[in-house]
Amino acid sequence: MSGKWSGLVKLAAAAAIGATVASGATALAGSDESTAARSKEPANIGQVKLDVKAYYGDYLDAAGKHHYSDTSRFVKDTDRIVSDAKRFLQQQLGRVKNPAVVLDVDDTSEITYGWEADNDFGFDPVKQQQAIDNGTFVASKPVLELANWAAQRGVKVYFLTGRNEFQGPQSLKNLANEGYPAPAGAFFKPKTVAPDYLPCGLTCTTVQYKSGTRAHIEATGAKIVLNLGDQFSDLEGGYALRPVKLPNPMYYLP
């Protein structure tokens, strides 16, 4: 996640990349001109929120906190995608020397849905930091299972996230507490001094930062078989045999 987007921006983007979105109210006049004008309108923000909640099977606990359902379309889609990725990884074992998988964190290794819904899908960096400090986010069960399955077979696991370097220690503590294997490496976006392998320095776009870091991982001798992320910007730029896009209709990060 990043402070560069707002709740309105990310929910508007959800209409394009996430759950099916209603096109809005029916034209009152019923004329061709009125219908054409309405068809060009972006999705209603309130409807997008309802569609996103339905996709996650939203429910409230006794304290009024939002959660996603294990029977939701979100979980079914994630299970299917990760299962396909696991089969591909299994096929590559023995064929690829020094295989590795790269995992994004937010809404890949961990799911932020409940926290997002509790905050009406708006982003607040202070609240995000509190959530990381408190270990609020929960592990994605399919990704957790994949990571451990891979590590048990000698596949190196790397975390590569847009969270900044100051959030690294607590993030790694949370991932370990959730049961993730000790990573061969973990990369957080630099805020003070950029590594030499990122010529874009502290001004890297997401694609530059992530693809440049994957190139660095492969330069150490590892071969990235799977690169899992919930944003297309997690996956663009190469340096992975198979990029794996996980569902996330809540926000969009370029």
From TrEMBL:
Please, which domain of life does this record's source organism belong to?
Answer: Bacteria
Gene3D superfamilies, sorted: HAD superfamily/HAD-like
Signal peptide as annotated in the record: 1-27
Concerning InterPro entries, the annotation shows: Acid_phosphat_B-like (IPR005519), HAD-like_sf (IPR036412), HAD_sf (IPR023214)
Q: Which UniProt keywords apply?
A: Signal
Q: What is this protein called?
A: Acid phosphatase
Q: Which species expresses this protein natively?
A: Amycolatopsis vastitatis
